[in-house]
Amino acid sequence: MSTERTRPAVTGHYDVRRGAAAYAPIVGAFGALSVPATIVLFTTAGTGDTTLVSLAAGLLVVAMIGSLTGSIALAAIGAEVDETANLPAAVMFVAVPVVVSLVSVLSAFAVLAAIHLPTQKTLFAVIAGVGGLAGTYFTSFAVGDSWHPGPQDPGVREEWRRRQWIGSRDDAYRQCAILAAVSSVPPVTGLVLRLLGLHAQPTESSVYALVGAGLALAMAGTFCGVQRTMHPLSGDQRGVRRYEAYGTAFSAGLYTLAVLVLLP
Length: 264
What we know:
The protein is an all-alpha fold. It has helices at 16-32, 34-43, 50-78, 87-116, 121-141, 154-161, 169-183, 185-195, 204-228, 242-262. It has ten helices and no strands. The relative contact order is 0.17.
């Protein structure tokens, strides 16, 4: 007779609150590094194309603002006591300024490479694109464990799940894979265009447009993320919605595409 004991199935999940609390100081420190880089850039402003210097400085400022506001929003999510269904959506919104910050700082170095190492500018632009692609994937990843948070009362939970976009673990993993694949199209397109040498030469107008778009995305993502941490007075928890998932992931991907097209 076998003496082996049957082990229970492992049904663990990712606690988004702990992840957000751990990411917050990392993201904040990342943005703080943009400050000395901006100072150094201004001290050497007279040695290169003023349009490119303005673009690099603007991207570094976007990176600083996106990372600092994103880190504060992540800390707010990490301070949540209960694992409610709105938190994965909040993380997806907050991921937008974080990705914008990541892409912006890498793109600023690509601009500096265009000034001082013109033969290597494509390499640095591709590095920025890969950073954006990774950020888009991590934004999509939040859908994978969005099935777990929500009402814990079995009777209430079953009825609540039927009204959600993500209703089970299988749904969550399948939709996560689809979202990651679809939202990667813009950054991959940008990478292909760069490798083919197809991009625009930066102008004063494109600098304003790119920096303005980065700031707008960073602030919108932070604001929407913080708002999404608010709990409805009715007590009916709001899980991740399809338009929120695709809107956040595509925002990160499209910003990456725009940067790759407008980098020198």
